Amino acid sequence: MLIGNLDGMTVFARVVEERSFSGAARKLGMSKSAVSKHVTKLEDNLGIRLLNRTTRRLSLTDAGSTFYQHCARVVEEIETAEHALTDLRGTPRGTLRISAPLTFGQMYLPQLVTEFMDKYPGLHVDIHLADHMVDLVAEGIDMAIRITRLKDSSLIARKLADFTGHVVASPGYLEQYGEPKTPQELAEHRTISYTNVPSPNIWDFDGPDGQVSVRVNPVMSCNNGEFTSVAAIRGLGIAREPEFIVAEALSEGRLVRILHDYDPLSSGGIYAVYPERRHLPSKVRVFIDFLVEKFKGGLCNFHQEACAEYREGRGRQRPRP
């Protein structure tokens, strides 16, 4: 009986995951009415109500909750089979959904993705740039690039490169306020905090005498690293920044690295992460392999070319009338 209901089961599972008919319709590329008809037909064939519908929300019935657990496994098996066939054909197809931090994505992904799509023209790439942590499973993301000190996670991670963090200030700021020689002195300075970290006002360092933690009192906070770097360049205060954001400003003397004897524990790695699954889709595998190859010489080797393209692209932008 259920063999003829595979489409309905797939649609029903997506409705549950998206918590709405309209969300499922967007994910499936169908109309909302078509989604509703699939679910209604499935309920009619099974002879039982799966969803409680009101004008405001959907909720699973007890039967629907039980049935969804089985549907999800069936849909996963179907997707696994489709991915396996795609691998046999040897040409990744479909949509590759990627998440990446905003500034890193703006600086590096245009060059990377363009080159990658030249190799695999049958792919459509959907890129989500955000500085907050994205739930890959809930948002239907195939893989993400994360810049972090990797912690235990249900996600599978593959390291692409190391990255280094620096504590920086403008020459003008240091001339006006002096240069701190130890992390403890930061408590008396004007600081700029990046907020997409667990404790933005606690700055940790690894120094000659071990680890040091300092509570700073920021004059400004922001959830974007490029914004905080520009504020530092303009003399607003001292900031902690990834090297890939401030490398150019450091080389040009617009920023100065301070506290050389202390490693800010904002350093870490750049990782490609993806949800754990029995069969990794070929589109994800080949993109991660591509990233590993591009970054095999380290981030610095790739940085100058990518930054040049980023600056050139921004230079072509024109303000809207």
Characterise the protein shown here:
- This is LysR family transcriptional regulator.
- InterPro entries: LysR-type_TF_proteobact-type (IPR058163), LysR_HTH_N (IPR000847), LysR_subst-bd (IPR005119), WH-like_DNA-bd_sf (IPR036388), WH_DNA-bd_sf (IPR036390).
- Belongs to the LysR transcriptional regulatory family.
- There is one protein chain.
- The chain is of the alpha/beta class and 321 residues long.
- The chain folds into three domains: 6-87, Winged helix-like DNA-binding domain superfamily/Winged helix DNA-binding domain (Arc Repressor Mutant, subunit A, Orthogonal Bundle), CATH 1.10.10; 94-162 and 268-303, D-Maltodextrin-Binding Protein, domain 2, CATH 3.40.190; 165-266, D-Maltodextrin-Binding Protein, domain 2.
- Helices cover 43% and strands 25% of the residues.
- It contains ten helices and 15 strands.
- The protein has helices at residues 6-18, 21-28, 32-46, 62-89, 102-119, 171-177, 225-233, 243-251, 282-294, 299-316, and strands at 51-53, 58-60, 94-100, 123-129, 143-148, 155-163, 165-169, 191-194, 202-207, 210-215, 218-222, 238-242, 256-258, 263-264, 268-275.
- Strand 9 (202-207) and strand 10 form a beta hairpin.
- Helix 2 (21-28) packs across helix 3.
- The termini are far apart.
